[in-house]
Amino acid sequence: SKMNGRQLLSFYKPEMNRDYNQLLSLEGDLREAISKNQLSLYYQPKVDVRTGYISGMEALVRWKHPEKGMISPGEFIPIAEETGVITQLDDWVLREACKQSQVWIDRGYAPERIAVNVSAREIQRRDYAEKVRNILSETLLDPRYLEIEVTEDSVMQNTEQCIRTMQDLRALGVSLSIDDFGTGYSSLSYLREFPIHYLKIDQAFIKGVLTEPSDAEIVKAMIQLADAFQIEVVAEGVEREEVLGFLRENECSYYQGYHFSKPVPAEEMESYLSKKEKY
Ligand code: C2E
Ligand code: CA
Ligand code: CA
Ligand code: CA
């Protein structure tokens, strides 16, 4: 189960009871993790609902702690955000994802768009688009093969600045997604304001489409509205064939989920890419 930041802190250094020291020590561990290569990326395919072909992937960070083993991003991202280490972490992820993607392109696989997640405080920086531009030119990745996922929540925190940054990114040729859509406080009509290409419907709604009539209606409404704004919809957390059937019937464009694949290490992602070539 997911722990929040505070629970993790008490788990992390039970003998200490001053939160501030605990935060500092975890911050140190995280910084060390970045510099000592304890972080890695897993990749989850994005799949075309109609054809069943892979049409892209999302990079998801993993932390292999030397003593504590695998720590999931749900546990350390909130602390990275609180301590500011998120800047280094998100930079590392972006650079690593771009590098890996260019490696696959150089090996001759058909290029697939790679999506990275960005935290609220990063997307709100005025120089964020500039940073992305620099990492793209450093790694030689064509901007059209990069996608940036911004959560609905972070856009709602500072909407005007976020929209400006998104416009700059779009001008670079990078694709944009609104992540975890439906969980925040924006209304559907906000979609018109966002310069985005994709809308990712949060898995909480997708999981309910077969059993909760209201979830099914919400998902249908999101798909229809996105369509009116020429935004493509990605359904998250698809675990069952029947859910895929629902998405097909309602003309959702893409999906991600355990039904096709969990997030996998680079070598396994590469084997998906090599199979696709043989179709
Ligand atoms: P997210 O961006 O919404 O990513 C989707 C999460 O759902 C991933 O968890 C993925 O493993 C999981 N998932 C995918 N398909 C299924 C499914 O069919 N069933 C279920 N139950 N789960 C599924 P993960 O990898 O643990 O990541 C959790 C969150 O951590 C992400 O949510 C994202 O918000 C954040 N995160 C991950 N990597 C990064 C990163 O590099 N930077 C930042 N800022 N945040 C990240
Ligand atoms: Ca995401
Ligand atoms: Ca999501
Ligand atoms: Ca989510």
Automatic annotation (TrEMBL):
The chain holds residues 260 to 538 of 539 of the full protein. This is Diguanylate cyclase (GGDEF) domain-containing protein. Residues 23-277 form the EAL domain. Coiled coil: none annotated. It comes from the Bacteria. It comes from Halobacillus dabanensis.
